[in-house]
Amino acid sequence: MDMTLEVIxxxxxxxxxxxxxYRDKVGFHxxxxxxxxPGMRIVQLTPPGSGCSIALGDSxxxxxxxxxxxxxxxxxxxxxxxxxxxxxxxxxxxxxDVSEPVRYADADGATFMYFTDPDGNGWSVQEYQRxxxxxxxxxxxxxxxx
Length: 146
Known about the structure:
The protein is of the alpha/beta class. The protein contains four helices and eight strands.
């Protein structure tokens, strides 16, 4: 049985502010912004080139058991780019307060930069140069065919 990780609910305090931040500052595409059932608004956003989205909702946490996460409590969310210098330039041009890239080692995949959303949810952006020639969807497709 195949399983894919496609949507991560993200705890935020203001859906409109978060939607605008992820759309305008980070460059995510707004896939859905609607009331999907009476009393439940969902905003789903996808990073360009990604197969996984984030979902913002005013009653999304009532649908699953367990505690409701506090806005800003998610840390370690990670985006990958092929060229961190180009990504840094684009994000700062959009007005995102993102750190300078930090190279932790010479290996591909060892350079990161960081930002937080308006609630404090923490993100990293990892440079993985291999993705320029080998997009993840192609690598996974090749693995599935093997």
